[in-house]
Amino acid sequence: MSASSNTINPWPFLLPALSLCLLFFLLPTLNMVILSLTTETGFGFDNFKLFFATPHLTQALYRSLILASSATIVASLVACPHAYFIVFCVHKKWRPLFLLAILAPFWTSFTIRAFSWQLVLSDNGVVTWFIELVTGFSVTLGILYTMNASIFGLALFGSMLTTFTLYGALVSIDHKLIEAASTLGAKPFHIFKDIILPLGLPGWLAGIFLTFIVCVGDYAVPTLLGGGLKPVLAQIMLSILKGTYDLSQAATIAIVLAMTVIICGLPIILYGFAKRRRFAA
């Protein structure tokens, strides 16, 4: 019997997943592109020209980028010590417990968590009450319904994503590499710089990319914590669908958001290709 006869044909197993991707991702995306190019006179880029010529839409795009970038930076900085501590400072049998502690708060609805943070961050909330209890002075936080509150809410979710992706990269590092480097006289800083950081970087970048995707198109947190006084693009898109129901304009905004994610994630994608080519060589 030849070796080829023992090879399993993967296509019957991939076909259901490919069919779902085609039905629920590729076709809706294609329809959205067609809608964004549909104008009163036929097909063209008039909707995109109108988008970039409208100040409040470009300002909303700018706010979306600032919000997503700030939340992503905060989340990535918070996730690094979390993942490092769990992998290198916690015994193997206790790691699932620490991961569960990070994941458990996110089992509740995203909207419910945003409402709960309203109670915490408001001027009459738990934080204000605790500060007044300790200091005896009346304080006003002034955080709720601001951009900072939105960054805080999105960074909490992003820190969980980045922690898990970075944990997956760090936990796969062979500890024999670290032991060998230490035996040869490498200092802890050099072990981190030359071994842990390069091997953990792909997981960290993956978490950053996922966090940015979630943050740039989020609606609930900027509405409930940011107040919606200075809307981001996702809020404007939903208001269009609820108001004028202009599908072409809403699809244009969605395509702009998608292209923004692709452009911002291009350096990470190129880094991944370069690294694969380096390993292949």
Notable traits:
281 residues; mainly alpha; MetI-like fold; 12 helices; 1% strand
Largest sheet: 2 strands, antiparallel
Please indicate the count of domains: 1
How would you classify the helix and strand content by structural class? Answer: mainly alpha
Helix percent reads over 70%
Reported CATH architecture: Orthogonal Bundle
CATH class: Mainly Alpha
Number of strand segments? 2
Task: Describe the global form.
Answer: globular
Radius of gyration equals 24 Å
Q: Mean pLDDT score, rounded?
A: 88
Q: Spell out the helices and strands N to C.
A: HEEHHHHHHHHHHH
| Major sheet: arrangement of strands | 1-2
CATH homologous superfamily grouping: MetI-like
Unreliable parts: none
Indicate the CATH topology.
Answer: MetI-like fold
Provide the β-strand percentage band: under 5%
Number of helices: 12
- Give the termini separation: 35 Å
Task: Give a written overview of the molecule.
This protein is an all-alpha fold and 281 residues long. It has one domain (53-280): MetI-like fold (Orthogonal Bundle), CATH 1.10.3720. It is built from twelve helices and two strands; from the N terminus they run H-E-E-H-H-H-H-H-H-H-H-H-H-H. The chain has helices at residues 11-37, 46-52, 55-88, 95-103, 110-121, 126-135, 147-171, 175-183, 188-216, 220-224, 233-242, 247-280, and strands spanning 38-39, 42-43. Strands 1-2 form a two-stranded antiparallel sheet. Helix 7 crosses helix 9 (188-216) and helix 8 (175-183) runs antiparallel to helix 9. It starts with 10 loop residues before the first helix and ends with a helix.
